[in-house]
Every structure is written in structure tokens, then in C-alpha cells.
Description:
Structural class: alpha/beta
Number of strands: 14
CATH architecture of the largest domain: 3-Layer(aba) Sandwich
Bound molecules: S-adenosylmethionine
Number of domains: 3
Oligomer: single chain
CATH superfamily of the largest domain: Vaccinia Virus protein VP39
CATH class of the largest domain: Alpha Beta
Strand content: 5-15%
Distance between the termini: 62 Å
Amino acid sequence: MDVYRDSTWILEDLVKQRDNNKLVSGSLKNIIISKHKQFKLNNKNLKNVFACTIETYKHLDVIDFLYDNLENLDDLLLKLEKDKSKKPNKFTLYLMINDLLFSKTKRVQLPNNHYLKKFINQLVKPLNKNWLKFQKINKISSIDEYLLKQNGENKPIDQPPVRWFRLNLAKLVTQDKIDYIRNEIINNFKHKVDSWKTVAENLDCIYEDEYIPNLFAVSMNFKISKSKWYKLGQVIIQDRGSCFPLEILDIQPTDYIMDCCAAPGNKTSLLGGYIYVKNRLENTEEILEVEDEDITRVIAFEKNDKRSDVLNSMMKNAGFETRKYNPDLTVAEQTEKFFEENSMKIDIYHGDFSTLCNNDRNKEIYNSKFFKFNKAILDPSCSGSGIYGRASIDNLNKADLEKYTAKEEERLAKLSSFQTSLVSHAMKLPNLKKLTYSTCSVNVIENEQVVIDLLLKHSDWEVIPRSESIPYWKRRGLSSAFDEYISDDKKESLLKGISLQEIENIKEACIRLNKEEDGGIGFFVCGFQRKNNSKKNKK
Length: 539
Ligand SMILES: C[S@@+](CC[C@H](N)C(=O)[O-])C[C@H]1O[C@@H](n2cnc3c(N)ncnc32)[C@H](O)[C@@H]1O
């Protein structure tokens, strides 16, 4: 009964939000996990609660029909109340109806002698009758057919068209091992194809990305998480867009890089692999300066307590050695942990990146610990409007972007100003020369708008030009995002200090990946460099 009880609370809450026409953000999975925590529910049931709630929520309008058309329901409920002095919650019944009609086992998860199981058993016939009626009205023969029709797509809802995964260099280390595993993976498939679209429909095919090294796409039906490569940590599931920022940063063996908003750490571990493995293999001639044991080449900030723990364990699982620091303490105050010689070191700062170097005390910390850092990744919290889960919820909510309420607009404006302030803070750090700003949002206000606001605020920074920002990627910044800054006759820039040509360059420097169309989540990234860093001073 625990599963139904826990799922009822979450389902009731989700429906309440839907009925208030409130747009639910984030993936359904994440929402359920957070509600599970909010209601302090039993963790043992999480997987089951997730399955139960998500399936029932997906089928809500069907179950509404089945339930509302139960002729004798009120009488049966009255009788139950009289006999047992109990009235079941409508959503508990919904969850049981879903299990009864649409689950694999077609069974209610209760013992046979449970009063609710006995109750629902009385409804089996009328429910089946209503389901047949529903199928007839909607001209469908199964629940999946109904969902596909609703979504207008020829694939199950709520998942990307292909699965992207990359080699985890930290677990491979030598060129021989990298080549061996790469070939082993490719040879596991009958065909290596030259478009990710081909793999979507075909389990026999693998695509090796043309933009990101060691990144592959396979059919969603290929269970990469069951493979030995995944189990050994040799591959990591990571969307294509999420790998783009590191390509733009052009990581060199001499770089010190900070990931300012790091958890769960997909970009951090990719970064670590570039710094500690890829670069060193590719630059055998380069004489590396003697490494300072106290200053690692990769540092990751994470403000949230729990997420910083997740980040720490993800990095360890990925093959790195980590130290976790408290940013409110000076270096002298930290309990020092020494790394093994030649280990792949990542320092994790559980703290707010925006406090770095913002007062005398923090300046001292910066000067003793962070002065070498010359590049940064900024991937701050965003609306997540480009991620999966979102669209299906929007569909189910029957709300789309046009229906954003004033509250939603306010939320996006707040996010945009938070994102701008965080990157702005990074731009003020004296030794930073290059950075990337990225989001998994599709909204202009969180993307191109942030880029423009930053350039207006920081005249000493410019965008990294398209020629150095994955130039062959075709989808660049949205023209419509820049229209308001150009005169009606298209001859003049309306932005103070930024010419028309510069506006064009900024648009070209921005990169967008469209959700679905580009094979995965919707993503945005733009690179920045300090002005005197360009051309002659570039490393
Ligand atoms: C979009 S997620 C980062 C995803 C990550 N880059 C990856 O690829 O796995 C944003 C993260 O930034 C953290 N965050 C937000 N504000 C922060 C701040 N001021 N300082 C440090 N971390 C922050 C959030 O807690 C969240 O974990």
C-alpha cells in the first residue's frame, strides 16, 4: 500500500499544478524525485513510485474518462464508507486503474484480501467497457497508439531520438587502450554510419560524431547502460550539446580551468579527461611545467550541499582523485589532503562561485589558490526548457510557450539576471582569459540576451569568433534575438559601442542545438575571451 500512498501524494500535487495551468518545469523524473524528498517518502519505493506515478500521469486524460463514466461508482463508494468507514482517495483509485488496465502485469499491487483490491475488482468490467468505448471514440487500439497520436511523433514520448555516449578518457589513459575500446565499441555494430539519424531506427548502427571526438550515437533501444564499457566506467552517457563548451575552450596542456557550476559533473569529467589524458597524449613534445601539488588543473564549484556530494562521488567513479573544500575557509584553515603523485586531480569547492574574490578575505583566498586559473566553464542553473520530459508535461498540461503566465516570465527574467551576474563575476576575475557560457534552455532571454548584456557590461571582453567556435556547426544564434538591436532599414546598430558587423559576429559566435532536430536536448553555448587575449596573445 506504501507505493500507492506515496504515489497518491505526488500525483495529487502534479494534478493540482496542472489544474492551476501552471507550467511544470524540469523532467518529470526530477520532479518526482524532488517531491519524494519534499514529502519525506520512503526511499525504498522510489523506483516503483516513479513508474506508478509517471505512467498514471501520462494516461491521465484516459483515466479521467474511464473514471467519470463509471455509472455505479458513487453507490459503491458509499457502501465502502458505510462498511469500512473509509473513503479512498480518487488518485489512489487512478493509480490502481492504471495498473489494472495499462501495466505489464495488469495487476493491482495489493494482497487479494485488501479491502481496496476487493473494491477495485468490482470495477474491472465497467472499466474495461469504458476503455473499449474510449478506443472507439478515439479510433485507437492501444494506449501507446493513443499517446503517439497525442504527441504526433512516431516514437515513445519523453525521450531523445538517439542515445549519446562518450569515451571516459580518465578510465582509459593510454592511446592503445583508447583505440582498443573505441574499435571494440564500433565493431560491436554492423555498420558505422555517417548520420545520427540513421542510428535512431537501427540497432545495428553506430555514429561517431563529427564535431566532438570520441562521442557516439546509438539507437535508444541499445541498452548502453547494460554494456561492460558502461559498467567499467569506460563510457559516460552525455548529450552532444553538453560536450560543445569544451571544444570552444580549446584546452591546452598548460591551462588551469574552473568549472563554476559543476554538479552533477558531466562537463567536469570531460574536462578532466581532456586535461589529464587527451592533451598529454597529443602533446608529447610539450614540456609541462612542474605541477604544483597545491593547485590542481581542474577545480569545480558547486553551491548546493547534496549536489556537491554527488559531484564528488561522480568524479571519483569517473577515475579522478578529489579533494573537497569549504570555500569559506582560507587555504591555511583547510584540512589539507595530499594527492597521490601523478593522479588526475580535481578540487571540489562546495560553495558559491560568486563569492570568489569578492571581498578582502576572498581576495586573499583567490590570490593564494586560484590565481593560475585562466579558463572557465559557466553552465549555471537555467529553466531547462531544452531538456526532455518538459515537452510531454507541457503537452499534458495543454500549455505551450504562448501560455506562459506573467509569473513564468518573471521567473525567466530572474534566471536571466542570475545567469548574467554569475558570468559577469567570472569576467571580473583578473586572470581569466577565456570562458564559455551555456544553458540547456531554448529561451532567448537566457541565451542570446545574456550574451548581449554581458558584452554591454564588459567592454574588455569579446565573443570567441565563429572561426574558433566549432565553425562548421550551422545552427548559430537566433536572428530574431538581435533584430531589436538593428535599425529598421538594417543599416545601423542600436547598441552603444557595438557595430552592426559586431552584432553579426556575436550572432555567428553563438551556437544553438535544437531539441530533437539536432539529435538531443536543446542547448546553447557562446565563448568569450578577454580582448587582449585574442590573436597574438592566444595560447
Ligand atoms: C545546469 S547545472 C550544471 C550541470 C553541469 N555543468 C554538468 O554538465 O553536469 C547548474 C549547477 O550550478 C549550481 N549553482 C548554481 N548557482 C551556483 C553558484 N553561485 N555557485 C556554484 N554553483 C552554483 C547548481 O546547484 C547546479 O548544480
